[in-house]
Amino acid sequence: MRTIRASIIGFGSVGQGVAEVFLQKREELENIGLDLKVVAIADSRGAEINNEGIDLSEIIARKRETGTIASRQITGVEIIRNVEHDLVIETTPTDVETGGVGLENMLAAFGHGRDVVTSNKGPLALKYRELMDVAREAGSGFRFEATVGGAMPILNLAHDTLAGNKIISIEGILNGTCNYILSRMMEEQASYEQMLAESQELGIAETDPTNDVEGSDTACKLVILANSIFGMDVNYNDVDVTGITKITPEALILANDEGYTIKLIGEVKDDLIRASPRLVPIGHPLAVGGTLNVASIQTDLAGTVTITGRGAGSIETASAILSDVVSLYRP
Known about the structure:
This protein is of the alpha/beta class and 331 residues long. The protein has helices at 13-24, 26-31, 56-66, 76-82, 100-111, 121-138, 154-161, 176-188, 192-201, 210-213, 216-230, 249-257, 314-329, and strands spanning 2-9, 34-43, 46-49, 87-90, 115-118, 142-143, 167-173, 240-241, 260-269, 272-281, 292-299, 304-310. The protein is globular, with a radius of gyration of 20 Å.
């Protein structure tokens, strides 16, 4: 049995989802020879540290009852530097302007020889090459499946299952919020503003939905795909981005009358990286509804492989993090 000592840095919905999944899957992890101990957790107000392993049930309950897990005033980066452990699970919020605290956390982890599994897109969208180089020099594992498609395994599919294939292009819907709004606009023949308000009421859209509806979230994911799968060296500013805020019910109805729907499609191929609303034939594999994500991967040997799944949600994102943890440490 291999013991892995981990920290969870960031204990919002995704961090809590990770803790829940670790609880649910403890027996399965032990069956493949992994004893996973979470020895430190940090949220925005402080941290909990227990070198023998934190009681995850208790810590989840504490967070929900009090709004914080803090039993001491120590930051995530201080935990990374000073608490002895193997793996940093970085789930702080995405900052596409500077990389935010997530970038500091990842660099600190590599500086101390720790492995990193993350759901945080911002640092990878801005500093992908630097992070990969620093991780390689440190001999650290670095996995980030959860940054692109939530539970939809695009990166691992391309790198592992489709190994040996040349990936010619990837296109798809990579933001469930935009897909929900556009789907509902067509169903209700309602305005963008009305369906945005509905999605916010349901918790599908953030209070500030700018990153989703202006295409920034999709652009970040495209950068990660471009760099990781196509070997490019690009960042967020290299993406041609158009959001969905100008789409009208009339445009959707006109498209429908001609046998099409309108979707926010992200695309990577050759030197093209673009996120924009596009006409998609009704019945096409990319014409999924609701909050679903979908990606169509064109290859030279396997042809076109299309996958669909939930691209958001705490448990769904945590499933991708768990997959990366298992991939790093499975005996």
